């Protein structure tokens, strides 16, 4: 159903969340596109090059519970504003680390930025909570569509600022990250969201373990985790692999931009596809696109292979992650939403952090071809669960979807 049918207040809040996603979402591509390259220049051990990016992912994961608790006790707006201010601090620390050639300070800065990443990831749930069930896929897609703007804003910020500080390449890019976070503050201040704790104190909530062992949650959480983790695993190593093959850092940055455009561009119609074909099948389509991305990456080392693989990787993430998020919203009652959303994102981004850390090591030990080969069995298992979900739920004592 069209979001135009919603009342004006809800539409305005969705629009503000879209804008906040566009600005806040640009922080991740800045970190992901140059974090490994900066790490490579600051550490003598090539295996640690992607550690800063991994610590960003770890920061996102470990911040999920604190962000959830802060939202529950102080409201979403306070949590989001806190994340924005911490991002400004993290960006300034990253700039200082580059200027002073401090690898470990750079790692700490990117880890701190993860708190903002956790807040930005919650925007999709805030949008989902604003609308009736029939509008949830479109509301989630709209917020994720804000990432389309971020796909331009983030990499272009890097592209135009990477050499503004002659003696410290990429330091200017993190100053740009701080400015983008500051621009999000007035938008977040104007948000009018219902207190996130209202639904949590009304109604009987099941124990978290009971929800977590249900077929619906297991399948949705696994599909979301696999979609995001495999995307991060390949994308983190891609810029390093491109430079290793003789392509320029600029080519690598533009490749990441095309990848992020592919990640969020389909959000124009992903919600409609989910409404028509079902979240389960769109999630499965995303996983098949991830499979095709790996095949393309293994086909050669020319620019077309890298960029083609990254584009397919982005498309697969979009369908897989938005589809899995929609599946997840059907696994809990309003009184259970905070803890289930936090658990899901803890699983997703904890795995993402491990994947990005493993990417650097796997690339240095085995190479680009073998890195992509790892994705096949993971995709196969997840697809099997998606296909078997109706049977599993039918034979479960308490089907949830």
UniProtKB/TrEMBL annotation:
Q: Where is the Major facilitator superfamily (MFS) profile domain?
A: 216-401
* Keyword check for Transmembrane: yes
Q: Give the superkingdom in one word.
A: Bacteria
Residue ranges annotated as transmembrane are 20-39, 51-71, 78-95, 101-119, 139-158, 170-189, 216-244, 256-274, 281-300, 306-328, 340-359, 371-392
Q: Please give the SUPFAM superfamilies that the UniProt record associates with this protein.
A: MFS general substrate transporter
The UniProt keywords, alphabetically, are: Membrane, Transmembrane, Transmembrane helix
Q: Which PANTHER family match?
A: MAJOR FACILITATOR SUPERFAMILY PROTEIN (PTHR23534:SF1), MFS PERMEASE (PTHR23534)
Q: What protein name does the entry list? A: MFS transporter
State the species of origin. Oceanobacter antarcticus
């Amino acid at each position: 159903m069209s979001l135009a049918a919603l009342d004006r207040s809800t539409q305005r809040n969705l629009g503000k969340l879209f804008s906040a996603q566009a600005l806040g979402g640009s922080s991740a591509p800045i970190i992901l596109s140059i974090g490994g390259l900066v790490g490579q220049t600051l550490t003598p051990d090539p295996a640690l090059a992607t550690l800063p990016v991994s610590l960003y992912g770890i920061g996102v994961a470990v911040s999920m519970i604190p962000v959830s608790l802060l939202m529950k006790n102080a409201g979403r707006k306070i949590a989001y504003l806190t994340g924005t201010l911490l991002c400004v601090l993290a960006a300034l620390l990253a700039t200082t680390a580059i200027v002073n050639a401090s690898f470990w300070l750079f790692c700490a800065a990117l880890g701190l930025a993860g708190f903002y990443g956790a807040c930005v990831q919650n925007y999709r749930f805030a949008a989902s909570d604003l609308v009736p069930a029939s509008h949830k896929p479109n509301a989630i897609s709209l917020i994720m569509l804000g990432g389309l703007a971020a796909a331009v804003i983030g990499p272009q910020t890097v592209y135009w600022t990477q050499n503004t500080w002659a003696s410290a390449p990429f330091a200017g890019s993190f100053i740009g990250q701080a400015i983008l976070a500051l621009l999000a503050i007035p938008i977040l201040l104007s948000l009018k969201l219902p207190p996130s704790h209202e639904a949590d104190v009304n109604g009987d909530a099941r124990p978290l373990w009971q929800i977590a062992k249900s077929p619906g949650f297991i399948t949705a959480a696994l599909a979301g985790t696999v979609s995001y983790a495999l995307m991060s695993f390949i994308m983190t190593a891609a810029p390093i692999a491109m430079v290793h093959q003789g392509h320029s850092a600029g080519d690598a940055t533009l490749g990441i931009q095309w990848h992020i455009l592919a990640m969020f561009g389909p959000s124009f119609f992903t919600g409609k596809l989910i409404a028509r074909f079902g979240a389960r099948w769109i999630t499965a389509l995303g996983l098949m696109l991830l499979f095709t991305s790996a095949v393309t990456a293994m086909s050669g080392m020319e620019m077309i292979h890298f960029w083609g693989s990254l584009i397919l990787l982005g498309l697969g993430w979009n369908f897989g992650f938005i589809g899995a998020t929609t599946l997840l919203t059907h696994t809990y009652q309003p009184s259970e939403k905070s803890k289930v959303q936090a658990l899901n994102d803890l699983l997703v981004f904890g795995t993402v952090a491990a994947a990005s850390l493993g990417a650097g090591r796997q690339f240095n030990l085995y190479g680009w071809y073998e890195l992509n080969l790892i994705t096949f069995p993971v995709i196969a298992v997840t697809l099997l669960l998606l296909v078997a979900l109706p049977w599993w739920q039918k034979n479960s004592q308490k089907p949830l979807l």
